[in-house]
Design goal:
Layout: H1 2-12, H2 17-24, H3 28-35, H4 43-52, H5 57-60, H6 76-91
């Protein structure tokens, strides 16, 4: 599940393996190995991946399907707008 989640998040953010690897200071081969379940990232790297994508390690590991969205720093009006967009998408 970890490899699938990393690939899904990476592609959803429009990142190539090369660009994602650069952001984490690892090689493209390392990212490829994670995505193909050849190796597992260290606990520290798993945390960095979760932080980068603003999600939880439980989500990455397939233990939880909940996704998080950090809205700290938004005004109430901005939060309401984001919430409306989410509700609209869910209703589609």
């Amino acid at each position: 599940m970890l490899g699938i989640r990393i690939r899904e998040l990476r592609t959803a953010h429009g990142l190539s393996q090369v660009s994602f690897a650069a952001k984490l200071s690892v090689t493209k081969q390392t990212v490829s190995n994670w995505e193909n379940d050849n190796i597992l990232p260290s606990i520290e790297m798993l945390t960095q991946i979760a932080d980068y994508f603003h999600t939880t390690t439980d989500y990455l590991l397939g233990r939880d399907d909940k996704r998080l969205l950090d809205v700290s720093g938004l005004t109430e009006e901005q939060f309401a707008h984001i919430n409306f967009i989410i509700q609209d998408i869910e209703g589609a």
